[in-house]
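To close the chapter, one final illustration. This time we ask the reader to focus less on the individual chains and more on the assembly as a whole: which components sit near each other, and how the overall shape emerges from the parts.
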Amino acid sequence: MATQSSRSAARIMMAPAVFLLLVWMLVPLCMTLWFSLRDYRPLRGGDLGFVGLENFARFVSSSSFWPAVFTTVLIVGGVLLVSIVFGVLLAMLLDQPMWGQGVVRILVIAPFFVMPTVSALVWKNMFMDPTNGVFAHIWRAFGADPVVWLTDVPILSLILIISWQWLPFATLILLTAFQSLDSEQLEAAEMDGANPLARFFFIALPHLSRAITIVILIQTIFLLAVFAEIFVTTGGAFGTRTLTYLIYQRVLESQNVGLGSAGGVYAIILANIVALFLMRIVGKNLDR
Amino acid sequence: MSRNTVLRTSSALALCIAANAAFADAHSTTITIATVNNGDMIRMQGYTDLFTEQTGIAVEWVTLEENVLRQRVTTDITTNGGQFDIMTIGMYEAPIWGANGWLVPLDGLSEDYNVDDILPAMRAGLSHDGTLYAAPFYGESSMVMYRTDLMEAAGLEMPAAPTWDFIREAAAAMDNPETGVNGICLRGKPGWGEGGAFINVTANSFGARVVDENWQAQLDSEEWANALNFFVNLMNDYGPDGYATNGFNENLSLFQQGLCGMWIDATVAASFVTNPNDSEVADSVGFALAPDNGLGVRSNWLWAWALAIPAGTQQSDAALQFIEWATSADYIELVAENEGWANVPPGARTSLYENPNYAEVPFAQMTLDSILAADPNSPTVDPVPYTGIQFMAIPEWAGFWTEVSQEFSNAYAGQQTVEEALARAQDIVNEAMEAAGYQ
Amino acid sequence: MARAVTTQRKALNTAIAWTVGFLIFFPILWTILTSFKTEAEAIANPPVILFFDWTLENYGVVQERSNYMRFLWNSIIIAGGSTLLGILIAVPAAWSMAFVPSRRTKDILLWMLSTKMLPAVGVLYPIYLLCIQLGVLDNRIALVVILMLINLPIIVWMLYTYFKEIPGEILEAARMDGAGLKEELLYVLTPMAIPGIASTILLNFILAWNEAFWTLNLTSVDAAPLTAFIASYSSPEGLFFAKLSAASTMAIAPILILGWFSQKQLVRGLTFGAVK
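The assembled structure is written out below.
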């Protein structure tokens, strides 16, 4: 067991990380809180004084607020769903014996290395463009009218683009979890006459639960902040304005820093609600 | 990491260090210029070495796409960040920033530069209270570009100053789903400078206005409903699929591929669509003034990309020297010599349009006529309290008009009706006017 | 114990997996192919897939227009620096959390992750003003620190889950043998932790490399990395698919190559201790 001296040593070793993160959290947070209480509009001459909670009232009463929250949930949820369902399937596939496993694995992880801006540009211009995009060519080859992706199915298009970037991450985590699955247990179940579906749901899936929670936790953090993909493709139109994008519009397009900061505070609150919920699950699974 | 990987990585690092060292040759004066990645600016970067040779002033370029550039320079100027010695800004920013004292007034321009040669409309749009704050690198209005071959085949002749009704008729005549040719291509992309600008000037020609003299939103007016309905019907009937995401770039590409009968957009596009290297239809493009509705206001805008010096810079002398070089008549000559007259930056100087060589360029006269037809001081049929044609020269415009144009684009995409879009736009504008303290 | 697998089964697996892999990789492949086409071929209808005149012209144009090496170098410095700095700070923290856990360890870990939830755009002005005050705009060191702070929670997490897997008995044995804290750390733990640290480095290098908000907004010339490079090609006047593809390929190539060399480590690093 740990001794008293190793305990205090541990505290010292933890201190730099904790201290730095505390500063990194508190300084922007306090500045955001400060700005959110002020009428700060850079193009109107900067800080125009204290306005109380007006920014908060204005941000939340805007007709864009609730749709933005809804869109955020839709996109985050959609991407999580796609990356977990397909991640599990892909991981199962990659876990099978085959020739050239290493190369296939490389092909599958590759999208993770692509910058969000680049991937959004490539998808928008070279795949989803209704005239010159690859999809349009395929549709036309089958005699169909090309789908105008970004306006006809904007949320689905965004989920597709973002999932493409995050699917590799989910697949990798799930793959390694699969590899540690006890094959003897599976064989025993097979002998007992359990069909493949039952084997999957009663043995494989419970084994994956920890990996899945980790995928959800890490991805949610990154997905809540998704920005470049929306900026490049739809610019927030067609019902794709997430909370992050709404804040961007308030701060940079409308140049109303006070209002945007109030939005930032709301975003923190919402993110923390999600986080609390997630951490309940993760916290439970972490101990296993 | 395997030893091999480490080795490879470290040798790659060593290469980079060596390469980095090569950049280290220091000049006595270096200016940093933020600019947009448009063709004329990219070309200017190619000639920078000549400027450095002449003056000994080195130039660092920060080239960004339009939206990112705007975000970068606005953050920097409002916080006095001092990251740039010259910023490329538009007609929207120049007077607002100038009024705030954030830009160095360009009153120290030399005799040779001949500031009076700048087109009056451009000079006025880049000034505040009679003081010039940014020098135009190129200027533009908007006009109709059309396919002469298709018009001929349809048995129509484009008047020099068409009406919207004629545009619709011509679009119907040229539209051909079998060959993939769309009757007309117009901007529907969200953003105040994209589809938002186009629909605003269209509405101007229909007698609509964004606000009345008391800054009350007017988007619930009949004129706005007429304008937006006309636009949506025209584009649904004869426009390309997915026009709600088409901006300048997308339409340019469609037109160059021969997929548009007409395209109403920036006059600078004329040199791109008539350039045989990029355009399949270079030989058969005609030009006309932007359409009107018989109400005395044409649907053309006025814009300039201009160079300005932020007040926070330590290098304002060197910056001024560069601006004089880049926006001078000599620079135009330089480009003409190397790339031909059709490729010089247009729309900034009167002398360019008096030059007999330039008069031979097919779109020169129409560009000038379009610019002259635009009046920022009376952009609408009914009076308005603001200046600017496709924008109101107030700081809030970019924010709320982007939101409005998003509502419109949603209507173009069929996600809501024109009436719903206008009702929402009305609320957005009133909310913004109230928040800005106008109401 | 692996079960015997018929050749047909293996062939089927291989076929399906390669098809899926190819589909997922296709957007990248298409970008790379397009970068070698002329602009006209890039938008040809029907599209040309392989039989076009391969040209390096686009790369030439991009290279002429921007100083690629400088952007690349900044990306390497910023991504590398922030990762190494992060590791230096995170290793002791993760070590102590894993081996000397207290009641609050889990809370601290979860709190660390929650610091990543402040939306970046909301704090652009505060951070920008702060950087002006400190005089660190367009400064590589400032970006190294900021990106380190952004990724620190992830680094601590990953290392924590790795260290957690190191069996406690080994430590006990070392202590019995009279090893002090220093010896324990240097001779017992470090060798066992090296693979985990290596994969943590890789993942964070990728995350830092792809970070596009702060790296774009806090830089202009001296510190601008590849994310700024790509912003000068993203929507030029006219659609230049081939040049855009060339620039995109140049922006992702270094990290793609690095990733390929080290994919085995990455696979380990991404487990987050999901494997027992």
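The longest helix of chain A spans residues 4-36. The longest strand of chain A covers residues 46-50. With these observations in hand, you are ready for the problems at the end of the chapter.
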